[in-house]
TrEMBL record, chain B:
InterPro entries: AAA+_ATPase, ABC_transporter-like_ATP-bd, ABC_transporter-like_CS, P-loop_NTPase, PstB-like. One of its GO terms (biological process) is phosphate ion transmembrane transport. This is Phosphate transport ATP-binding protein PstB. Pfam families: ABC_tran.
Length: 219, 250, 279
């Protein structure tokens, strides 16, 4: 179905936001390789840009609601774009947090081989979720959600490995904090995918709810 | 919520041309149901089958069933049907040779039966319920046609309500009116539904979204989709519905 | 000769004015003659007394005036209701039916039948059966002549009433007979009244049927079943009589008739105009 121009513009906004995040990710990778100071400032500026892009998308969505009073698929596309822009903004914050952690802990990347793999998997999920959104592919989006379990278990593995680590607190902090950040980032990739599914099919997958442990008092 | 009006495979013809195909739909009591769809796809014909006005056209034919509170509409006296199921038209049509108050009670006075009702009380009550009383109370003897378009339409609604119908059918009641009058009548409809069942045809999809509880989509004489309004407008099931309400055609 | 556009325009307008004048001139001439000749005879005696014996002057045409009024009223009593009912039938109940178009054709043909023939019909039916001249036959003939005029006026005025209003009535569950009479006919009443008045004016001028139905009389009308004097027949008889006094009286009667007809036409125009001013 032909998409109206206002939806195309909103899509472009999401696309641009994603491109900014891709650049941020490149900065994260280089910070992992060489933790030089000053990367924080660079990445912070980029993150500010992403926030501005988020505001712009929200603005465009509100204008679309006012001017076009969309229904059905068009309406869902607008509301999804609003939520996804928030998720992308969070993802960019998480990425910049990683660089901040590296800077704060002042430790080399030698400590973080495990977490690097986890980061790459998490980033892969983010890429897939945005691409499936831009291509309106609910099947591809659903497969991203399936990957979340792996990230969760990867995160737990890192925790258990470094809980009793003897090689120094810096490594513990680095790995622990980065693993946590990646886990949250992956969650937001899932949220983006769920929005894609809703936008195309109209049904909601309830991934935003916290995964509560079973209530022990009732056993 | 009980069902008030039900049709079972209702079909209608103008001569050889079939304009309604097997419409089966259940209207909920004391709710507003909107009928939407492109022009000429049978919406007017459908509601005229409900108050048995379609059969007044030469060459018209109806098949299938329609029930009001379980009673077969086509087994009742047609005039009884029309008293229980009132109708308001697109172009306001007050009787120009009658005063405002005579217009309101025209259905009662001219019904062919002697009525003991207190007509003045009915005039005041119905004009108040449509929000017209304060505007016209200083001279109720003015001709019904001397009012503005929006006032005339409210007068026609009052006239229909004076019969105390159980269902009121509205055929694009605001499409000939300005936005302010439209808005007043939409408010009136929202108020009315606490007392009577409303079925409204509108070609304005936004209006359906604003005032209805349930929405039905008719296309080329067939019922394509019928759902709660929020669901209908958020995630319609049929691609034809989707294309229509997003303005891709029609 | 090359004629400019403006000159052509002016020439055409001049021609139209001249031709219209030529068409209207006879009317003024006729009315002028009638007024001129008739006004001298007007007097109270003229209007209220019976004709005087042959040869003597004085007397009047009171019986003819009364006779015309009586016959016209009775004819209206026949023609107007029947005409209205026919008009209602044609407008509301017989739009597209075969019966309806047959009736309409008959009614229209009736208006084309020469009044003399209608008079003959009444003569044969009533005068011959009862074996004397009677006002009843005149009433019948003139009444029949009114029917098509009233029916047409009624039908047309009712047709003009918008279908929206009929639909509104139907949607309220109002029975059709009430919609027809109390909504549609009520809105059409201006046209119906005008049509009836014009029909009345029309029969006031008809003479031929009266000649052998009501015949004539020199006395006050004693009953509708008797022959009666009428203005029309009086004018005919007096005008060709050769008596100067009678000829003068014929002009006077003509003046009365013309006044009646003109008054009715003016009244109809006035009624029609009032309607447009938003009654």
């Amino acid at each position: 179905m032909e998409e109206p121009d206002y939806l195309k513009e909103i899509n472009n906004g999401i696309s641009e936001m994603y491109n900014s995040i891709v650049e941020i990710y490149a900065m994260v990778l280089s910070a992992l390789k060489e933790p030089t100071a000053g990367k924080t400032k660079e990445i912070c500026d980029k993150t500010k840009l992403v926030m501005e892009q988020e505001e712009a998308i929200i603005d465009r969505c509100v204008e679309a609601l006012i001017r076009h009073q969309p229904f059905a698929g068009d309406l869902r596309a607008v509301t999804s774009a609003m939520r996804i822009s928030y998720d992308l903004a969070r993802i960019s914050r998480y990425l910049s947090n990683i660089v901040q952690v590296i800077d704060d802990v002042q430790s080399g990347v030698a400590c973080a081989p495990d977490v690097k793999g986890l980061l790459e998997s998490g980033w892969e999920m983010v890429q897939e979720s945005v691409k499936s959104y831009l291509s309106r592919d609910p099947v591809r989006a659903a497969s991203v959600i399936d990957e979340d379990a792996k990230i969760d278990s990867g995160y737990r593995k890192v925790l258990s490995r470094y809980r009793d680590y003897a090689g120094g607190g810096a490594c513990v902090l680095l790995n622990g904090l980065i693993a946590r950040i990646v886990e949250r980032m992956a969650d937001h990739a899932c949220y983006i995918s769920a929005e894609t599914v809703y936008m195309v099919t109209g049904s909601r997958i309830g991934v935003r709810a916290p995964k509560c442990p079973p209530d022990l008092s009732s056993q | 919520m009980a069902t008030k009006l039900v049709t079972e495979r209702l079909s209608a013809w103008f001569g050889k041309k079939q304009v309604l195909k097997d419409i089966s739909i259940a209207f909920e009591e004391r709710q507003v149901t909107a009928l939407v769809g492109p022009s000429g796809c049978g919406k007017s014909t459908f509601i005229r089958c409900l108050n048995r006005m379609h059969e007044l056209n030469p060459g018209a034919r109806v098949e299938g069933k329609a029930f009001l509170d379980g009673i077969d509409i086509y087994g009742m006296d047609p005039m009884d049907v029309r008293r229980k199921i009132g109708m308001v038209f697109q172009k306001p049509n007050p009787f120009p040779n009658m005063s405002i108050s005579d217009n309101v009670v025209a259905g009662i006075k001219l019904s062919g039966e002697k009525s003991k009702a207190d007509l003045d009380a009915i005039v005041e009550r119905t004009l108040k319920s449509v929000g017209l009383y304060d505007e016209v109370k200083d001279d109720l003897r003015r001709s019904g046609a001397s009012l503005s378009g929006g006032q005339q339409q409210r007068l026609c609604i009052a006239r229909a309500l004076a019969m105390e119908p159980e269902v009121i059918l509205m055929d694009e009641p605001t499409s000939a009116l300005d936005p302010a009058s439209t808005s007043r009548i939409e408010d009136l409809i929202r108020k009315l539904k606490s007392e009577i069942t409303v079925i409204i045809i509108t070609h304005n999809v936004g209006q359906a979204a604003r005032i209805s509880d349930k929405t039905a989509f008719l296309y080329l004489g067939e019922l394509i989709e019928y759902n709660d309004t929020k669901e209908f407008f958020e995630s319609p099931k049929s691609p034809i519905t989707e294309r229509y309400i997003t303005g891709r055609f029609g | 000769m090359i004629v400019s556009r403006r000159t052509k325009e002016k020439l055409i307008i001049a021609a139209l004015v001249a031709l219209t004048g030529a068409a209207v001139a006879p009317l003024f001439w006729i009315i002028g003659s009638i007024v001129w000749n008739g006004i001298s005879v007007m007097s109270l005696e003229f209007l209220t007394s019976l004709p005087a014996p042959f040869g003597s002057s004085g007397g009047g045409i009171g019986n003819a005036i009364l006779g015309t009024l009586i016959i016209n009223l009775f004819a209206s009593g026949l023609g107007i209701p029947l005409g209205i009912l026919t008009g209602i039938y044609l407008a509301e109940y017989a739009h597209d039916s075969r019966m309806g178009s047959t009736v309409r054709t008959i009614v229209e043909s009736l208006s084309g039948v020469p009044s003399l023939v209608i008079g003959l019909f009444a003569f044969t039916l009533i005068v011959l059966s009862f074996r004397h001249y009677t006002g009843v036959a005149a009433t019948l003939a003139l009444g029949i002549m009114m029917i098509p005029l009233v029916a047409k006026a009624t039908e047309e005025s009712m047709r003009v009433v918008s279908d929206d209003l009929r639909e509104a009535g139907m949607a309220l569950g109002i029975p059709k007979y009430n919609i027809t009479t109390r909504i549609v006919l009520s809105m059409a009443k201006g046209g119906v009244i005008s049509g009836s008045l014009l029909a009345f004016a029309r029969i006031s001028g008809e003479t031929a049927p009266l000649l052998f139905t009501a015949l004539f009389s020199f006395y006050w009308p004693t009953g509708i079943d008797q022959p009666m004097a009428t203005l029309q027949v009086l004018i005919y008889n007096y005008a060709i009589s050769g008596f100067a006094d009678w000829v003068a009286k014929a002009w006077g009667a003509s003046l009365l008739l013309v006044l009646l007809v003109i008054t009715i036409n003016v009244a109809v125009r006035y009624l029609g105009r009032k309607k447009y001013e938003g009654a």
